[in-house]
Design a protein that fits this description.
- This protein is an alpha/beta fold and about 575 residues long.
- It is built from 23 helices and 14 strands.
- Helix 5 links the parallel strand 8 (about 195-200) and strand 9 (about 215-220).
- Helix 9 (about 310-320) runs antiparallel to helix 12.
- The relative contact order is 0.13.
Length: about 575
């Protein structure tokens, strides 16, 4: 279903909108998380712990059967030692247990830095944190940074095997703890208040509001990329070290663009398609009109299309055809399936070539092209061909490395100008790492689609789908069974307990839940009497099927099912 946060009609929605994406969809991440932690339904209010103090801050976190008031009294006027005595923070410091933690002599007046990170399940010993935030939002202090005079204060968010994203309670607790620490540091050091405090938040846990109000300075700012790409890189960090298994769409679709509107080229390999999806996932084109995306880059130039081509890259594509374009070369590319025939014929026209080059030059000079220019000079099929061409050119420069190729395309440089030095910059390293992760997600999704597209499951899964189709009033034909199987595999990985706690729907208070990732209002509207439990597998399927048929006319018309049938990547519905 659609990923747009602005949609307000009750509906199914497995992920957030492309621009807000809190991945991403990873070197070595062909196997990732199948479970996102959820906030269960039973909610009753438990009493605040009796600390003898009036809380300055009252926050409630959801647990299995009740809510517990957590972290009441994170008052920046009170030191950590006092908060731990009052029970606001669970003091786990023991003599000698702070070995390995950051500590400095009292004479060291350097401004402390704060780092927030999800626990790395693949390397549990890689981090010795001052604070650990538990699943329910409870804050444990393993070492007091104030008594240690620490300059690198580490906050670790605990996570289960396979967990990709922090729970809502953890996110809120981390935000409050960072706010408290920043206020403590600024109050004790006027220089810190003026200069700002460095924040290393690669997993994008801390809210932008807290960053701004507390004058926090991200240490990895990625200043030379668009906000959409910066967000995509941050989202991809969450996939690292989750020690998971095959990741369902509910965990990764927000990190991918799912905007491809053109079938694969005749000779387009799985790997080329995977690199394209990684680049689009990092660029994050406009969801409704991806191929018409026009976006100003921080360097002042313009980038366009589903893959964010720069003017330099468009000129590089033209140069690869010869100057003027060689008709023999064009015919060869047509036969190889690397150029769509209509676009190829236009390239034989000098007037068309001049217009395309003129648009590319204007983009380099900071002049925005019009949407009509994009539609005329860079149709969808042409953009796919150009992306393949540039990927092939970059392979000769950086090797067959999906992450490095992604970084090269996002750089905006012509492939011939992209060097090893460009790839070694901090920004390129982050783009390369994120591109590799998203490539792995794309390849994993391709494998899932190839396994389940058109496949009818056996045993309990088939029985469950058939029963749900019948109760939903929809034919239990082989095509419908296969379609539901595909949707469920991609949306939830057949995990009936998945609750998506971080997309745009979750931020509005209606997280997507269950096998077909329905939100509460949609489930309520399309459920039937006697089947009102959104996390019950059959109940969720019934409501999801009824919604899909009501919205799209049939299960075969669901966007993801239709896309896979046409040889394209699955897209959420």
């Amino acid at each position: 279903m659609s990923r747009h946060s602005e949609v307000v009609t009750p509906r199914l929605d497995s992920m957030g909108d492309g621009n807000a994406l809190k991945p991403h969809d990873q070197p070595g991440l062909h196997h990732q998380a199948v479970n996102l932690l959820s906030s269960p339904e039973g909610r009753s209010l438990a009493a605040l712990p009796n600390t003898g103090q009036t809380p300055d801050l009252h926050r409630v976190a959801i647990t299995d059967n009740h809510t517990v008031a957590l972290n009441a009294g994170l008052n920046p006027s009170k030191p950590l030692s006092e908060l731990s005595k009052a029970g606001v923070i669970d003091d786990k410091t023991v003599m000698g247990s702070d070995a390995g933690l950051d500590r400095h002599p009292a004479t060291d007046k350097e401004i402390p830095r704060i780092a927030v990170q999800l626990e790395n399940k693949d390397d549990p010993g890689n981090l010795k944190p001052h604070f650990v935030i538990k699943e329910d939002g409870k804050i444990e202090m393993r070492g007091n940074p104030e008594t240690l005079n620490s300059k690198d204060i580490q906050i670790n968010l605990e996570r289960k095997d396979g967990q990709v994203n922090p729970t809502e309670a953890q996110t809120k607790a981390a935000d409050e703890l960072v706010k408290y620490l920043a206020q403590r540091i600024s109050a004790s050091d006027p220089a810190a208040a003026k200069a700002g405090i460095e924040l290393n938040d690669k997993d994008d846990v801390v809210s932008k509001e807290t960053e701004q109000k507390q004058n926090l300075k991200p240490t990895e700012d990625l200043s030379n990329v668009t906000p959409q790409t910066r967000s995509a890189v941050q989202d991809s960090h969450r996939l690292s070290g989750s020690r998971g298994v095959d990741m369902p769409g509910a965990a990764t679709d927000g990190m991918m663009s799912h905007t491809r509107g053109v079938p694969r080229q005749p000779n387009e390999t799985d790997k080329t398609m995977g690199v394209k999806e990684a680049v689009a996932g990092l660029w994050r084109p406009d969801h409704d009109h991806p191929y018409e995306t026009i976006r100003k880059h921080p360097d002042g130039s313009y980038r366009v299309g589903r893959y964010g081509f720069s003017g330099k890259q468009l000129n590089a594509f033209m140069e690869s055809l010869g100057d003027p374009p060689d008709p023999a070369m064009i015919e060869k590319l047509i036969k190889e399936g690397k150029l769509p025939k209509d676009f190829a014929e236009k390239l034989k026209n000098p007037e068309f070539v001049a217009k395309l080059k003129g648009m590319a030059d204007k983009m380099n000079q900071g002049q925005a092209p019009g949407k009509s220019d994009i539609a005329t000079l860079l149709p969808k099929e042409a953009q796919e061909a150009i992306a393949t061409n540039l990927i092939d050119q970059l392979k000769t420069k950086v090797g067959d490395q999906p992450g490095a190729i992604s970084a090269g395309l996002l750089s905006g440089k012509a492939p011939k100008d992209f060097t090893a030095a460009d790839l070694s910059t901090p920004e390129a390293k982050q783009l390369s790492d994120a591109g590799q992760r998203l490539f792995d997600v794309a390849m994993n999704q391709q494998q899932i689609e190839q396994r389940v597209a058109g496949r009818i499951p056996t045993g309990e899964k088939r029985d469950l789908i058939e029963g749900a189709l019948t109760k939903a009033g929809v034919s239990d034909s082989a095509a419908n069974i296969a379609a539901v199987n595909l949707i469920v595999q991609r949306e939830s990985g057949w995990n009936p307990n998945i609750v998506n706690n971080w997309d745009s729907n979750a931020r509005k208070g209606t997280p997507s839940k269950g096998l077909m990732q329905t939100i509460g209002p949609t489930f309520d509207q399309y459920s039937i009497p006697g089947h009102k439990n959104i996390l019950n597998p059959e109940d969720n399927l019934i409501a999801g099927i009824r919604y899909a048929v009501s919205r799209y006319g049939s299960l075969q018309n669901v966007p993801g099912v239709k896309a896979v049938a046409q040889g394209r990547a699955y897209r959420g519905y």
